[in-house]
Design brief:
270 residues; alpha+beta; 2 domains; 15 strands; globular
């Protein structure tokens, strides 16, 4: 049975023409699937479906998504994350389910002493009567400009140079930032992507050491709106808040103190 599949040129180049043709003919594509983005059921025989190829250093996994959730694309993923996803799917190493209340937080990655790393928190933020999925990025310490030996924190100026906008008040959604995107794959947050050098493929600006769980409400809002609001503040401005109302209060305070920038980013747009 022929499937309503979208196979992008990038995916075709990776899997080859023969395999792409077998997918389109329905020989190797499943009928029913769970969307790799929103995690709800789909049917490639009844609705447009995107082929999404996750590629690590040694492993590649072909997944499927509603065309309205993700376009067909090749998504680079750390090998460790991809292997973990494969193990969880095949059941080779069952993991106990974990449940955490919002907001969800990614522990900063381990790195060299005195080197700041980025922590990311997810939550829902109400702006102009609409609940927006949001990510809050805060480094563990001051961020110096590359090559600089001067003390100080250039985290916000560096982001403003990349197109993030200062937020004096949280009253409306920030403007979209071209070329940046939020990678939500297999129902989890994997990375924030930025444009590649010289128009090359997108690269990770932040990548989770382990995929970050997000709530069903956050994922539903992100799928519905097709974008995520990304806020950033200097070290010590937001902190690890245990509830979304406390996170909102911390964002409002950072904005009032001139310590908040933001941008809107599409889901997995590369």
């Amino acid at each position: 049975m022929q499937r309503m599949l979208d196979v992008s040129d990038d995916v075709r180049a990776e899997i080859g023409d023969a395999e792409a043709d077998r997918l389109l003919a329905g020989d190797t594509a499943p009928g029913a699937y769970d969307c790799t983005s929103c995690r709800t059921p789909g049917d490639s025989g009844q609705e447009r479906t995107s082929t999404v190829l996750f590629v690590g250093e040694e492993t590649a996994v072909l997944a499927f998504a509603h065309a309205g959730c993700l376009p067909s694309q090749v998504v680079p993923v750390a090998e460790e994350q991809l292997q973990g996803a494969v193990r969880s799917i095949t059941g080779e190493e069952p993991q106990a389910p974990t449940v955490a209340p919002p907001p969800q937080q990614a522990a900063p990655e381990q790195t060299a002493p005195d080197q700041a790393v980025l922590g990311v928190t997810s939550g829902l933020v109400l702006l102009d009567g609409v609940l927006h999925p949001a990510l809050v990025v805060e480094p563990t310490g001051p961020v110096a400009r590359p090559g600089s030996t001067e003390p100080g924190d250039d985290f916000l100026p560096l982001l403003i140079e990349q197109g993030f906008m200062p937020v004096p008040q949280l009253v409306r959604a920030p403007a979209p930032l071209h070329g940046w995107s939020v990678l939500l794959a297999m129902g989890q947050l994997h990375a924030l992507l930025q444009p590649g050098v010289g128009g090359g493929p997108a690269v990770s600006w932040w990548q989770a050491h382990q995929p970050l769980q997000v709530t069903d409400g956050w994922r539903t809002a992100a799928t519905k709106l097709g974008s995520v609001l990304v806020f950033a503040a200097p070290a010590g401005s937001i902190g690890r808040q245990s509830r979304e109302d406390l996170l909102r209060d911390a964002l409002d305070k950072a904005a009032a103190n001139g310590q908040l920038v933001a941008a809107a980013m599409p889901l997995a747009g590369t």
